[in-house]
Amino acid sequence: ADKLNETQIHSLPAGGMEQDVESTVTVRQPKLPKQTWDDVPKPLQDRERTKQKIQRYVRKDGKCNVHHGNVRETYRYLTDIFTTLVDLKWRFNLFIFVLVYTVTWLFFGFMWWLIAYIRGDLEHIGDNQWTPCVNNLNGFVTAFLFSIETETTIGYGHRVITDKCPEGIVLLLVQSVLGSIVNAFMVGCMFVKISQPKKRAETLVFSTNAVISIRDGRLCLMFRVGDLRNSHIVEASIRAKLIKSKQTKEGEFIPLNQTDMNVGYDTGDDRLFLVSPLIICHEINQHSPFWEISKEHLAHEELEIVVILEGMVEATGMTCQARSSYVASEIKWGYRFTPVLTLEDGFYEVDYNSFHDIYETNTPSCSARELAEVTARSRLPLTWSVSSRLSTQGLPDSQEKRSAAAEELAEQNGDVANIESESKV
Prior knowledge:
Blueprint: H1 6-10, H2 34-37, H3 42-49, H4 75-79, H5 81-87, H6 90-119, H7 140-151, H8 166-194, H9 198-201, E1 204-206, E2 210-215, E3 218-227, E4 233-247, E5 253-260, E6 271-272, E7 278-283, H10 295-298, E8 303-313, E9 319-327, E10 331-333, E11 335-337, E12 341-343, E13 348-350, E14 358-360, H11 368-378, H12 382-393, H13 399-424
Parallel strand pairs: 2-10
Antiparallel strand pairs: 1-3, 2-3, 3-7, 4-5, 4-6, 4-8, 8-9, 11-14, 12-13
Helix pairs in contact: 5-8, 6-7, 6-8, 12-13
Organism: Sinocyclocheilus anshuiensis
GO molecular function, one term: G-protein activated inward rectifier potassium channel activity
Domain Inward rectifier potassium channel C-terminal: 204-374
């Protein structure tokens, strides 16, 4: 920080900056126990890190790269069977949909055939003196067709239940009630499955890269979001989390520690009016996890920024959530986003061809902490500089030297006061 000054910060050459190149950021693949990894020499650790690409916590398409294994309490999935069916893939969902209806039709068809068999209706087929439980039921196939007509309330009129069959009336009531429950459950499951807002989230786009540059005199991390549809996301809000390994003061290792990144929560800027693409800004200040990270350190960091955009779909009122992530190699230091909004004749036009484009800009490569120290030092008054210089040189031990130093300091402070008064005049 001492080597930087205000002139260097504001007059960095545009062509003198290092070009960010897409490089493979790797994480370590420990083949040794965790407790012995610290004893491995650093060159060996570096070689181990280059063997495997970085493992994302959230993929670019928003899907979480986490698999749940060794779940012993699988009965919990059955206690919430409706959500379990909705979460299944479409091929399994359709298979269960067809299977449930087929099984219920077959089961009640068998029950109608069993009643006819027990009553002897199958032995009196064609006997006009015999009153069967169900007219024109002469086998299992006709019983199956009657079951379908009863449960789906089709009623062709050829097969009909008679009033001389009390057990058939009870079975008719049971099938009608259970059939209504099955219809409500399966149709409701299919409706929720179809109306899920997951596809709506695919039209919410995030920029391929995040950038770090100066905005309003402060170092900021920025990324861009946009909505491809004309129907808007109501009550849209944005969040960002830093996923990075952490070791506590007590020695506990947290592999995927989540740290909130302020993207305007205190100012309300996290509430978006997402009509046109917006640049989301995270100011790197004392409370930011990037406070002490410089351009050089960023290239060696193993971190991931997860961004979450959520809101209600205007057409359906259902909550929609879109996610994306940025690893260290996708955070470009010293760049800004290319403008995409232009004013046409009576309307604003958004050019999504430039949505992911960035351009290089003058940005100091030091950390935000070092930048703040240099900026604060350049704004200090002259009296502070004189007194601090004297304090760094040390005061004499003898009383005479102390008094002489005090008199000299008073004279210098008087001169400073005169200079400041003259400058004010």
